[in-house]
Write a structure and sequence with these properties.
Layout lengths: L1 E4 L4 E4 L7 E6 L10 H19 L3 E6 L6 H10 L3 H18 L15 H13 L3 E3 L5 E3 L36 E6 L14 E3 L1 H13 L3 E6 L4 H16 L4 E6 L3 E3 L2 E2 L10 H5 L4 H10 L6 E3 L1 H18 L16 H11 L4 H20 L4 H15 L7 H5 L11 H16 L3 H13 L2 E6 L2 E6 L3
Parallel strand pairs: 3-4, 3-9, 9-10, 11-13
Antiparallel strand pairs: 1-2, 5-6, 6-7, 7-8, 11-12, 14-15
Length: 466
């Protein structure tokens, strides 16, 4: 298996610290608002990665943190007139609802920053003792960036080029403008915890260093996150963790691609910012997931009506092939005749190449349709393989008939009983050889996106893929 490592900027043979086991940490959400499409991208990308690693026989310990104390959280709670705890619990529950609808499996552990304050303080104390951090006269504690020789290695940046870089805070209390905060002194009325440096709360970067250490140890296999986290967040995590622990922090760094809307950066100021629940009010969740899976996890995704339409059409092809076929139980690991399974594995072993894996599934669909039309019992086995491969990607999670009749995000323009009555009326017309009436009923339904499908077993209907 080959995985692209952001740190080395190349694909590498994947090896784990402990044979057969994978330790994985992904930076999660700051829970002050509903999750947006960018969050969905990261959720789904690492869900697919985790599903595949487990399908390959690895025992995966998947940790995704929750930032539940932050400037944005304090501001939003104040604006809403609610407590920090009420806001964060509400947003965490909403996050879990969103990911469940997208067929994202929950991580094994979801550490929260507020429950690891002691661990965070202990790591800061270690950094101060080693000379990598200092307490300033304003009550804050800062990390000495220039003290860490490897700073900038994840992003291939040089220290002297960073002074004018983005997101560098200027503060007179710092020894150097590049230094970043580890502990923030509390302002009057703010949420706070006691520490050796006074009342305050942790900085954002130190949270992940402390929580990953507690859950996975000083060094672990994979660290993942969104494309905007490589600098400064992940760069700062490396500096903190390796300085405190005197060990390499992460073996493989992975970053998901960005989401663009109609080829533009998603932004509230541009009016093209969508939460997951906004999107799922109008579109089937599996269609949205397919769109996120169809691009390689490192590639940018364009969220647009045409892209969603193509995603629905692709899923419709899969479900149409599965319709009317009863899959059998198969053992994809030990079955000798699993050409499609082996090709799928080869694609996913190449840095989780989901576009190529889906291409294999489309080849399988063509073969399934061929044997299905011929009445070959082999159709049941091919359907089982298709469902097995789809499950690794978190796809094909619905009953075919239910998806084809609208799924979760597309409803028929009339209720099912009315459609069935029209089908019966058409059958009567055909029995009476009134083919003009039968055709007019079929055409009228088609104009409303209801497509009739005739077979020896009778007439069924699906919604047109739009």
């Amino acid at each position: 298996m080959q995985i692209y490592n952001t740190l080395t900027r190349r694909k590498e043979a994947f090896t784990t610290l402990e044979p057969g086991k994978v330790s994985l940490y992904v930076c999660g959400m700051t829970v002050y608002d509903y999750c947006h499409l960018g969050h969905a991208r990261v959720m789904v990308a690492f869900d697919v990665i985790t599903r595949y690693l487990r399908a390959r026989g690895y025992e995966v310990n998947y940790v995704r943190n929750i930032t539940d104390i932050d400037d944005k959280i304090l501001k939003r709670a104040d604006e809403n007139g609610e407590s920090i705890e009420a806001l964060t619990e509400r947003m965490i529950a909403a996050m879990h609802e969103d990911e469940a609808r997208l067929y994202v499996q929950r991580p094994d552990h979801e550490p929260r920053a507020t429950r690891h304050i002691d661990d965070i303080i202990a790591m800061i104390e270690t950094l101060i003792e080693k000379g990598f951090a200092y307490a300033a006269d304003n009550g804050d504690v800062y990390y000495r960036v220039r003290r860490f020789e490897g700073y900038g290695k994840l992003n291939n940046r040089h220290l002297d080029d960073m002074r004018s870089g983005a997101r560098i805070e200027v503060d007179e209390s710092k020894e150097d403008p590049l230094d970043f905060v580890l502990w923030k002194a509390a302002k009057p009325g703010e949420a706070h915890w006691s520490s050796p440096w006074g009342k305050g709360r942790p900085g954002w970067h130190i949270e992940c260093s402390a929580m990953s250490k507690c859950c996975l140890g000083d060094t672990f296999d994979i660290h993942g996150g969104g494309p905007d986290l490589t600098f400064p967040h992940h760069e700062n995590e490396i500096a903190q963790s390796e300085a405190a622990n005197d060990k390499p922090f992460v073996m493989t760094w992975m970053h998901a691609g960005a989401v663009r809307v109609n080829q533009e950066k998603m932004s509230k100021s541009l009016g093209n910012f969508f939460t997951i629940r906004d999107v799922l009010t109008e579109h089937d969740a599996e269609v949205v997931r397919y769109l996120l899976v169809a691009s390689h996890y490192r590639s940018p995704i364009n969220y647009a009506p045409d892209a969603l339409n193509e995603a629905r059409k692709s899923l419709t092809r899969f479900y149409t092939a599965l319709e009317g076929v009863e899959p059998i139980t198969i053992d994809t690991e030990n079955d000798d005749d699993t050409e499609y399974h082996q090709r799928f594995l080869a694609a996913m072993d190449d840095d989780f190449n989901t576009p190529e894996a889906l291409s294999v599934m489309f080849d399988l669909v063509r073969e399934l349709n061929r044997v299905k039309t011929a009445g070959d019992p082999q159709a049941s086995r091919l359907a089982a393989v298709l469902q097995s491969l789809g499950n690794i990607l978190g796809l094909l999670q619905q009953v075919p008939d239910a998806f084809l009749k609208g799924g979760q995000g597309q409803s028929a323009p009339m209720d099912e009983a009315e459609i069935e009555a029209k089908i019966a009326q058409r059958a009567d017309a055909k029995a009476n050889r009134d083919f003009a009436l039968a055709d007019s009923i079929r055409d009228a339904l088609a104009e409303q996106g209801i497509i009739l499908k005739d077979s020896r077993e009778g007439t069924t209907w699906v919604l047109e893929s739009r």
